[in-house]
Amino acid sequence: MDDRDRDQAGRAVNARPRDRLGRPLPHGSAGYPRVPEDLVLPPLPALREAQSLLDQGLPFHAHEVLEASWKTCAPEERELWQGLAQLAVGLTHLRRGNLPGAATLIRRARQRLCGYADDPPYGIALAGLLDWADLVLGRVSGPSPDVDSVAPPRLQVPPPAVEGGEAVCWLGRVCPECGGLDEHAGPRCPRCGADLPV
Hints:
The protein is mainly alpha-helical. Helix content is 39%, strand content 0%. It has five helices and no strands.
């Protein structure tokens, strides 16, 4: 009998702790929290969760979320979800310093995703993902690879801006003294004359 970890049904599972990039650690080590193995999200929440994980520097975890979607999606979307999962695991290899592995996975992901470029579902930013893949492949294959500054890909097209913008874009125009809003972005509050933050 092997010494592999098994679930209650006897199926092999990998219960070893892992670091934040998904590398296995010795049993008993303090690992990074894992994505639950039974987590299956509908497409839009899966994309949002994967993006959040990518933005937190957890591409292996994003890969696990996308892989769960790939394994449970409709047959006509399998290549899409597998491609997205491969982009995330390609970024994982990039962050681990495995440039050949990263290039291989990102190339495979790009090939799978191209089939959805004409009509990407769920607001997936296919053109941006293909551009991201090309950028990474160019940086990996150059004479002096430059991969440290590679930002994570954006999985979805951002929603249109809401009229008035984000609160932070006008927050500097609120007077700290009286709470009045300077409509003209001047140096002083038109209501009480106090200096406005720069």
